[in-house]
Amino acid sequence: MKRPLSLAPLFVAIVFPFVSVQACGPFFEPDIFVHNLHPDHPADYAAGKLGILLPTYPRADLIFAWRYLNGAPPTREELEAYQPTYGFGETVPETDSDNNAVRMKAPDGSPYAEPPGPADVWLKARNNYAPAPPEVHTVKNYGVTYTAGMILAGSYDNCQGDAFRTAALTVDSRAKTWGAKSPEVADWIRAQDAVFSNCGGSGNSDYPPPGTPKITPTQPAPASGNAPALLRQDRAYQIAAAQFYASQFVPARASFQAIAADPDSPWRGIAAYVVARTLIRDAFLSAPPNSDNGGGMAAFDPALMRQAQQQLERIRDEHPPGISAHAIQSLLNLVRLRTEPKARLREISAALSKPDADFKQDLDDLTWYLDMKADSLPVREDTGDEAFDVQRGSGGYQPLTPAEKQPGFEQALKDLSDLRSISPLIDWLITFQSPAESAHRHALEEWKRTSSTAWLAAAIMKAKGSDAATPDLLEAAARVPASSPAWPTIAYHRLRLLTDTGHAAQARAEITAALPSIQALASDSDLNLFTGLRMRTATTLEDALTDAPRRILDRTSQQQSSLDECLDIMKDPKRKYDCRDDKSPVEFSSDAANLLNDEMPLATLARAAQSGALPPRLRQSVAMTAWVRAVLLKDESTAAQMLPLLPEKLKGEAGAGVGWHPLMALLRNPGLRPYLDSGVQRSYSYDFVESYSDNWWCEDWSSPYGGGSGEPAGSTAAVFLTAEERAAAAKQLADLRALGSADEVLGAQAVAYVKDHPQDPDAPEALYLVLRMMRYSCSRDNGTAEEKARGDRVASIANEAGALMRHRYPTNAWTKKAAPYVWVKDKKTSQ
């Protein structure tokens, strides 16, 4: 269920549905080791166990943290009203033992049904007095015209819960007054049915959404002149309500004003209130096309909205009967957030910073407003590239670098200066989330000015070891007690800075000493972050490997999909692959994968493959990676060391040395590559060709394991590695990447071998495998000149392989099997 963003209990904001299109997915995300969109345990978070605060958390959750960081924990009532975020707009579904989502079911095994709503309450009460209830639709649809005549379908909750509950109470009351079977009650119900018949449909729009019927407004019949006075008063209100729900706002307003002026009407107080609602609804729906009231906020007519404010302020001071002061104030708050946004935001910020009787509403209002104003700007580190105005020359798309994004982050922070100036809370929220360098400076200035824990957390989170202020931050952070809600955040970044400033031994000792406190947080995300930090401080390979495996929280990667697909296909007894369904609770997170891939030379990687510090399956994955690197780098000694550690099937295919047989093994097994993955390893299904091109390796093979899984990257080189080892690793890495993609390097080597050894019995299969690899490999072509040139080289290899097959082995079974892999005009296609 999506998290509601209503701004008053009696009015739901107009929303526009997203346009849904079928994409060419599926799309995969990195496996998760740190939940960067929500805390691991929202209930614990709400109770003050904040853990390590991340700038990617939703603002509502950071507002809650603000209270704890400033020493004003929420009241019991606020805790009951707070709804922690499990994801952006999502609640956590039930999961099985492997963290796979399962559909929630009732005790009898059937899916849960939606609970009864207010309309059901009305229908149940109505059915006590009249037969054949009509169907009630509460949502009104309409169309809005935008630039270039584009029409989007919109909808809003037209008849809301208070209307149905009031109708249910009123019909019971009238039945007691006139009698359950009286003609007056029957007349009253017929009129109310007419009122609610206007709830759904297409409203007063000239452009109803396609397929939505245009509903003719239905008015209750006027009460007869000899009807009881109460029925006549009820009927006047029913007619006004029907006009309102039919979007006839001007006559509805006049009708409600007349009722409010009748001192004998029991509806005079609520009618005065609904006058303001007609103005608000009219203000939203009558806004001119393409009008803009700022940010992503729904357009409205300012003059009508100000009239609504004046009406609400008047009746607030008059205290009319039949409507609570709280309801009036709530609706007035909604209006003032549009007519007097700065004043209202100051009030909300002040209220949220201490015990607040309207905590939930104020939290929703502030979150909604900030989302409307800020979410279209690059205000967070995980903002998509499309939000940045970066112009490049011709060529295909390439992901933006951090340096290319920095001007966009800076401009966004500048654009939000007026909003930030409204209150300390808003300033802290935006600054805490912003990756801009100026946000770093501002957080430091505010911490120095206020000495507040909240600003210390923001400043130390953004600090670098080379900053002049880092010693002061470290000193202040050391004074934060472990009992403080801020301790996990501040301690983590203090230890990070200690490591970055050359005090790795001290950091390691403190992390080890703090482990009981860290484990008491009961957060796998936090434990993974602290463990990753300790890995960077390791003084031996064994210590680093001990901390390299982390608990995997969500298996969302393409590697997991490959393994699942392999296991599913193996349900056919004729299909045999070396895939095993033995999911480990731990895998390498991205910082561990980076350490193994980028910083360790081959000799050290080979030692890691033989270390008992790693679980057996990860150890074998390291051995497979080291073996692939040894083959590509022609390192026969290391290849010989790794051979006994390979899976039995692969060991038999690989053979000794680094020549032809290892090359054939690489061609036969698409899950082999010269790097380890972040999360589930592709080597777990190494002999399986998966369906979405995650096979062999690309020319930019450094990218698949870098970042994206939630944990910050380490900024300090591993302590246990010597300068010589790091230099050797850098050279080997450069040599491996210079070889290019698998289809280029393996294809060229295979074609060259077959040309020199045409009688080799494996030659036809090798050519087939080259063509298969080019069909299913992860080659990319984003339109750059380099990629086109590479594509031309690969096409040339494929054409040569195809020609060799046709001319030298025309009747061979492998040649016939290669028929689906046809190259036309230098582009691979399948028949």
Strand proportion, as a percent range, falls in: under 5%
Q: Could you list the spans in which at least 5 consecutive residues all have pLDDT below 50?
A: 1-24, 87-114, 144-152, 204-210, 703-710, 824-831
Task: Give the % helix.
Answer: 40-55%
Number of helices: 35
- In whole angstroms, the N-to-C terminal distance is 44 Å
- Over all CA atoms, what is the radius of gyration? 33 Å
DSSP E strands, number: 6
Judged by helices, strands and strand pairing, the structural class is: mainly alpha
Q: What is the spatial order of strands in the main beta sheet?
A: 1-2
What composes the largest sheet?
A: 2 strands, antiparallel
Mean pLDDT: 85
CA-based shape: elongated
Give your account of this protein's structure:
- With 831 residues, the chain is mainly alpha-helical.
- Among the domains are: 1-97 and 360-388 and 402-537, no CATH class; 117-228, no CATH class; 248-339; 741-831.
- The chain is 51% helix and 3% strand.
- It contains 35 helices and six strands.
- A two-stranded antiparallel sheet has the order 1-2.
- Helix 4 (118-126) packs parallel to helix 5, helix 6 packs parallel to helix 7 (229-245) and helix 33 runs antiparallel to helix 34.
- It is elongated.
